[in-house]
Amino acid sequence: MEDKDFGQLVYAHGQKAVGVIFLRFPISAREQILKDVLNLIKQQGENLAGCFVTVQPGRIRISRFPGR
User: How many domains does the chain have?
Assistant: First the structure.
């Protein structure tokens, strides 16, 4: 089961969060998750604070939280 409520909690309800990394990988690509997340942290590091990050195979989208 996948929990997709983080975006709604952060954006619609204004819940406080240091940052969110939302992983959207099909079952067939899940062995790639660790590599992609480690690369993201290595490349972006401290720039991720205050962001909602969506990681998909071959794609990363970084958005700042509203009001930050």
Answer: 1
Under 8 Å between Cβ of 63 and 52: yes
Residue 31 falls inside a structural domain: yes
Which tens digits make up the pLDDT trace of 8-21? 666 666 666 688 88
Residue with tokens 């958005």: 63
Could you tell me the pTM of the whole model? 0.75
Q: Pick the residue with more confidence: 56 or 14? A: 56
Domain residue limits at 58 = 6-64
Q: Among 29, 23, 22, 14, which Cα is nearest to 65's?
A: 14
1 part of a folded domain: no
60 - beta bridge partners? 55
